[in-house]
Structure formats: structure tokens, C-alpha cells
Sequence to fold (137 residues):
Amino acid sequence: MDSDEDRGSTPLASSLRSQRSGERRLSRRSLGEGGRPVHGHRFVASYGSASHLKKMPRFTYVYVLQSESNPEHFYTGRTDDLRHRLIRHNNGKVPHTAKSRPWRIKTYIALSESERAAELERYLKSASGHAFLKKRL
Fold:
């Protein structure tokens, strides 16, 4: 009986061969016209042809920070720029969190609708939201 390598170019056999030989190959989906890698900051739609280029939607982040100096202390907030907001928290630019720095992100959720993000933040700051976070984080 023939070995797997002798049977042709099935995706599994092909990937096993490239793993054995140490080759790294790009998938066909990551290649542009003519087999060249696609570079740039545009996002391609998941379905249909590549002519349906779409911009990534803006997200509003609801986040939970945990104090590194006092691990029992958490802060819940909302922002459009999570990295910049964490830097502001850790630089003492946010009065409510300045005393307990440094902070680290415990968890965050990205929402495409800012109204829903505001509702989620409000819930997480409520008594039942605190209980939810305490139980699950």
C-alpha cells in the first residue's frame, strides 16, 4: 500500500510535508493577485470577492481594571481608545484611579454600538454587576 506522501497533494498530506521539511507557507487566502502577499490596512469582507473592501467598524470598549498595588480593587470604565485610556490611568491623569496605580486590564468587551456599551458599563457598576464580575473574574 502507498504511503500518505505518495498519494498526491491532499491538504493534510501537504501540510504534514511542509511541517516535516520546516517550510512555512502562506495560505491561498492570504495571497493577492499573482501570489503576492496582501499588505495594507484595509480589511477584506469575509464573504464574496475581495472587491467588497470594508472599513473595520469603530468599537467602544467596556473594561475592568485591576490594581496591581491592591489586587482587591477594581475599576470599570468605557472608552473608544483602550490603550490610551490605560496609559492615562497609569500616569495618574484619572483622579478616581490615581491612588491605586499601577493598573492592568483584567477584561474588556468591544461593542459596535456606543449606547449598548454605556448600558453595559452602567450594569457592571451596579450591585448585581459587581456580583456578576466577582463571581466570573
